[in-house]
Amino acid sequence: MLMAHPAVLRNLVEQYETLHALHADVGSPEVRQRMDDVAYTLCVSTGTRDVDTALIAARHQLPGARVQDDSLLST
Q1: Global pTM?
Q2: Residue 41's closest CA among 7, 67, 61, 16?
Q3: What are the pLDDT digits (tens) for 22-52?
């Protein structure tokens, strides 16, 4: 699998977190579409199928991620 550049992943995570914090999922159709597009790109970039898993995978691939990071464990 190809790996996205860490700068790209960081940017996608930041965009998604910003849109999420601004409650873009209940915003205008254009804003909701942007959030959907960022979520889709995160999934494609990390080889995952849902945005929560994509966020975990992206954070794990970023520089400074801890090998022992338990955020990948399901709860």
Answers
A1: 0.80
A2: 16
A3: 998 888 999 999 999 999 999 999 999 999 9
C-alpha 38/C-alpha 25 separation (Å) is 12
Give CA–CA dist 15/34, Å, rounded: 10
Helix (H) or strand (E) holding 67: none
Tokens matching residue 52: 């929560």
Closest CA to 36 of 48, 14, 51, 54: 51
Q: What is the chain's length?
A: 75
How do the domains of the chain map onto residue ranges? 6-63
pLDDT (average), residues 1-28: 90
